[in-house]
Structure formats: C-alpha cells, structure tokens
Amino acid sequence: MATQEAVMTTQEVADRLYQLFEEGKWDEAQDELFSQDAKSIEPPNSPGLHSVEGLDNIKKKGEMFQSMVEEMHGGWNSKPIVAGNYIAFSMGMDCTMKGAGRMKMDEIALYEVKDGKIVREQFFF
Questions:
Q1: Other Cβ atoms within 10 Å of 36 Cβ, number
Q2: Number of domains in the chain
Q3: How far apart are CA 15 and CA 108, in angstroms?
Q4: Which domain holds residue 29?
Q5: Are the CB atoms for 85 and 93 separated by under 8 Å?
Q6: Do 65 and 52 contact (CB within 8 A), yes or no?
Q7: 4 found inside a domain
C-alpha cells in the first residue's frame, strides 16, 4: 500500500520559511518549499533584476543579486503574516552594492502557496 506524503498547510510553510530565513538558509528554503515552476516577480523599478519563472531561474536570479553585493552588513525579516494561501513578510538589508555604495533596503515579500509549495514570490519596494 502506497503512503501519501502530507501536504504542508500555508501556516506550516510560513513557519518553516521564517525558520530558514532566520538561519540565513535561503537556498535551503527554495529547495524545500518552492515549486519547480514557481514565479518570482520583481517591481518594475527593480535595478538589475527581472521577474523570472522556474526554480532554476529563481536561483540564478539570487546568484545575480549576490554578485552585485560587495558586503552584507546585516539583514532582518518580520514574523510571517498568513491569510488564506498567502504569506507576507517585511524584510530588509543593510549592504554595500558594487559601484553604488552602502544602502539600506526595505521591502514587503509576498508568497503564494498551493498544494504545500510556494508557487509565487513577489517583492514590493
């Protein structure tokens, strides 16, 4: 008899995502919680980053962002807010960007969950 893997609730995904964010494990969060066909949406004013589709492209976008950072001085994220199939965090970082100097960035990150996996992330700043 085959066993069916339990599907995480949106609250469980939010709690796990928060735990991994707090531990600085962004890659592990993507590997564990994102759907293979997830979308990542950047605002139109996003400098150097574009919206992408697919987990591999989301990872490449993260690598591209990291390549733009000269030094990370700190970061933070709020506890998650869950409503229906959505999870919201406020988050920010203090970093020195190559060629642009030190800056503080604050944003809202919104995640949509379907069948226990994140299918979309969208950033507002």
A1: 9
A2: 1
A3: 17
A4: 10-124
A5: no
A6: no
A7: no
What stretch of H or E contains 56? helix 55-68
- Strand 69-77 to strand 81-83: parallel, antiparallel, or no bridges (unpaired)? unpaired
Q: Give the Cα separation of 34 and 6 in Å (integer).
A: 16
pLDDT tens per residue, range 95-123: 999 998 999 999 999 999 999 999 999 99
Partners of 71 in beta bridges: 96
Q: What is the pLDDT of residues 27-83, one digit of tens each?
A: 999 999 999 999 999 998 887 789 999 999 999 999 999 899 999 999 999 999 999
Read off the pTM: 0.91
What SS3 class is residue 68? helix
- Residue 45 placed within a domain: yes
